[in-house]
Amino acid sequence: MIEPAYWLMKSEPDVYSIDDLCRDGSTPWEGVRNYQARNFMTSQRVGDRVLFYHSNAKPPGIVGIAEVVRLAYPDASQFSPESPYFDKKATSDHPRWWHTDIGYLAHFDRIITLDELRHTPELDDMLLFKRSRLSIQPINAAMWHVIVALRKKIMHR
DNA sequence: GCCAACGTTGGC
DNA sequence: GCCAACGTTGGC
Question: What does DSSP say about strands A26-28 and A49-54: parallel, antiparallel, or unpaired?
Fold first, then answer.
């Protein structure tokens, strides 16, 4: 059996939230226009696990899990002059931007906030803190397990 | 809404 | 290939 890889993917809830993904079941992860994020996405395989992160949210944090349901294919929006994601240097023979499809798995019972992630010593090496603008990033298996365990932890205030 | 961080573009 | 200008991300 092949082990899945783990990822963190950011979305602004005002644009596309985990509730939207829950409603849709799955969605094409269109519109990524950062090379490193694209390269990570093209290396995703069906069955890989995804931490769904709400950025530009109050508070920002991980709100649930999802999975990769379709391998990367060319992003149609790069070819549409009307689209805000249009890229005049992309051609159908040589697409520049690719994306996978992401499927809903579950909401967490609570948000695991950025602040809480920062204060979890096992997560010190998360790219989230070092490369704050990278919207798709790999997560190692140990971190994945720490995070999914955190969601069951009861917060004392 | 502000602004620091940082990725991209394009002139040279 | 450098780097200034510019645009975007995303926390606060």
Answer: unpaired
